[in-house]
């Protein structure tokens, strides 16, 4: 499965669980760690975990099992590593505190369809 297919499935899964202010960055040629970085917000820890679960369900439907999740049940930030696509799910306060968008400013911010 290529990184574009993973990104499309991930963005659909995030949208299904109402991720907010979702941004995606094309980091090909900029980062050796992943092709795409995605960031989204959740209003609560419960929604944060629902988004992560939706991502995992979407990957299982695609028979893609090469992923990892970093964070705990009480975390305000979960990282879902799909290999070529890295997804960060934050509560609004944690997102503002870490400001990851600043780190990815050299990548190309993708225009995402409004849901």
Structural commentary:
This protein is of the alpha+beta class. The chain has one domain (3-103): Beta Polymerase, domain 2. 37% of the residues lie in helices and 25% in strands. The protein is built from four helices and six strands. The chain has helices at residues 3-16, 45-61, 92-98, 100-103; strands spanning 20-26, 36-41, 68-70, 77-81, 85-90, 108-109. The protein has a six-stranded mixed sheet. Strand 3 and strand 4 (77-81) form a beta hairpin. The longest helix has 17 residues, at 45-61. The chain is globular, with a radius of gyration of 13 Å. The model has no long low-confidence stretch (mean pLDDT 93).
Proportion of strand residues: 25-35%
Instruction: Give the overall pLDDT as a whole number.
Output: 93
CATH homologous superfamily grouping: Beta Polymerase, domain 2
Q: From the coordinates shown, what is the CATH architecture?
A: 2-Layer Sandwich
In CATH, the topology is named: Beta Polymerase, domain 2
SSE string, helix = H, strand = E? HEEHEEEHHE
Largest sheet: 6 strands, mixed
Low-pLDDT sequence parts = none
Strand order of the largest sheet: 3-4-5-2-1-6
Number of DSSP-assigned strands: 6
Our count of domains comes out at: 1
Q: TL;DR of this structure?
A:
With 115 residues, the protein is of the alpha+beta class. It has 4 helices and 6 strands, in the order H-E-E-H-E-E-E-H-H-E. The chain has one domain: Beta Polymerase, domain 2.
């Amino acid at each position: 499965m290529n990184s574009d297919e993973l990104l499309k499935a991930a963005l659909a899964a995030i949208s299904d669980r109402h991720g907010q202010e979702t941004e995606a960055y094309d980091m090909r040629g900029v980062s050796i760690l992943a092709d795409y970085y995605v960031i989204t917000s959740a209003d609560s820890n419960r929604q944060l975990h629902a988004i992560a679960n939706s991502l995992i369900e979407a990957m299982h439907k695609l028979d893609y099992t090469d992923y990892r999740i970093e964070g705990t049940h009480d975390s305000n930030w979960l990282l879902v590593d799909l290999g070529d696509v890295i997804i960060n799910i934050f509560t609004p306060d944690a997102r503002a505190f870490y400001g990851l968008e600043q780190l990815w400013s050299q990548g190309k911010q993708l225009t995402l369809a409004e849901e």
